[in-house]
Amino acid sequence: MSTVRFEPSGPLKGRLTPPSDKSISHRAALVAAMATEPVTITGYLPAADTLSTLDAIRTIGALVQRDGDRVTVRGCGLRAADAHGETIDVGNAGTLMRLLAGWLAGQEGRSFTFDGDASIRKRPVDRVAVPLREMGARIDATDGRLPPFTVHGQRLQGIRYELPVASAQVKSCVLLAGLLADGETTVVEPVASRDHTERLLSQLGVPLWRAGDAITVGHVDELTVEDIAVPVDISSAAFPIAAGVLVRGSRLLVEQVGVNWTRSGFLDVLDRMGAIVVGEREQRRDGEVPRGEPVADLDVAHGPLKGTVVEGDEVPLLIDELPLVALLGAFADGETVVRGAEELKHKESDRIATVVDGLRGLGAEIEATDDGFVVQGTGGLRGGTLHSHGDHRLAMLGAVAGLASREGVEVVGMEAAEVSYPGFGDDLARLQRR
Ligand SMILES: O=C(O)C1=C[C@@H](OP(=O)(O)O)[C@@H](O)[C@H](O)C1
Ligand SMILES: C=C(OP(=O)(O)O)C(=O)O
């Protein structure tokens, strides 16, 4: 395990292009594997989670060639003809585990076992097993709800499924299963969550439409996949953006960031907190499913912050950035509250507990609640030691906290950042050298 110290920093300056989007890279690799003609993905994220996805599709029979962030996939077709009985190692990647289960649930008469690391073994799969069973698949999970689990593929029937929680992973799992199912499959969302799967499938010409909160996909016999370009991950960009906002005298240009409105809630929260982040974002779009992913350059400067409340429909639009909202809250004037975010308990760590314990250990005035946290802003942070608990977003949170702190932060388990942001430490160092 690596321990890295992040000292209080002088102004961060310069331009930065953070890594490609993890969510979209997973989806791009999976649809490429469902095709039979070769597909080239540019801007594929070469991080631990998305390398697990390339390994997973190789296990199922796809041929994969990677040169940096350019990946060529010769897929195995929607019916993954040659695969059976494999064990798929999803590593640390919840998104891979849940989306791939949807595709493989429709492989009639064939079984696949899913397993992963210690963190993945604590993450619930009943949330996808319930709708997949309703569609006709058989799924055996450990203790009824955890990995390792086996998916016994069956001929699937389309269903109408009302998501009990807003989860893009569950929505995407059911939509991918729907491609193979007889008839139409509809997923109803309680509130909007990231829509990368819908945008990608509709770009590929799959019959897919949205009516209010309901997204419907039709059966397809085969998938024709065009080349795919992946934008920069706003969830990764959020760390240097937060550092630019928090470190006195900073001015950064963060380039080519994906600003799909279902992902960019963090930018709206920054606006409310009074942060200076300038760049054109996508406005909320409730009608037809848009094709493709919008990008923008974001100009970021240090400035004072005020507390805010994040709750309700906004939560899924920045679910992975909520740890950073807690950190920003510690530097803000007044109180910052996050509520309605119990889903944080089911991530790579229990992010309510790990964020609250981690930031409190650095001197923040923060309390956990059942569904979020409350931070009393004190205008700064002392510093100390923060443990990542193997959670990439915690490791990067500690690093940003260190740069903005008075005494520096030692992050125990910094290597976890490789899950989503290869070269994270180098990027921060480069911005400090300008
Ligand atoms: O669909 C996706 O790519 C993701 C959806 C979210 O999870 P949930 O669907 O569990 O909310 C998010 O936290 C995760 O990092 C990626
Ligand atoms: C929750 C996350 O990812 P996953 O669910 O794919 O492990 C994340 O990246 O913060």
Outline the structure in words.
Strand 6, helix 3 and strand 7 form a beta-alpha-beta unit. The chain contains twelve helices and 23 strands. The strands form six sheets. Strands 2-15-17-16 form a four-stranded mixed beta sheet. The chain has a four-stranded mixed beta sheet with strand order 4-5-3-14, covered by helices on one side. The protein has a four-stranded mixed beta sheet with strand order 6-7-9-8. It starts with a strand and ends with a helix. Helix 1 packs parallel to helix 3 and helix 1 runs parallel beside helix 6. It is globular, with a radius of gyration of 21 Å. Bound molecules: shikimate-3-phosphate (S3P) and phosphoenolpyruvate (PEP).
Poorly predicted regions are none
Annotation, overall tally of beta strands: 23
CATH class of the largest domain: Alpha Beta
The biggest sheet, with number of strands, parallel, antiparallel or mixed sense and barrel status, is:
4 strands, mixed
Rg over CA atoms, rounded to whole Å, is: 21 Å
Bound molecules: shikimate-3-phosphate, phosphoenolpyruvate
Strand order of the largest sheet: 2-15-17-16
Q: What name is given to the CATH topology of the largest domain?
A: UDP-n-acetylglucosamine1-carboxyvinyl-transferase, Chain
Strand proportion: 15-25%
Mean pLDDT: 97
Tell me the name of the CATH homologous superfamily of the largest domain: Enolpyruvate transferase domain
Count up the helices.
12
**End-to-end gap:** 30 Å
- CATH architecture designation of the largest domain: Alpha-beta prism
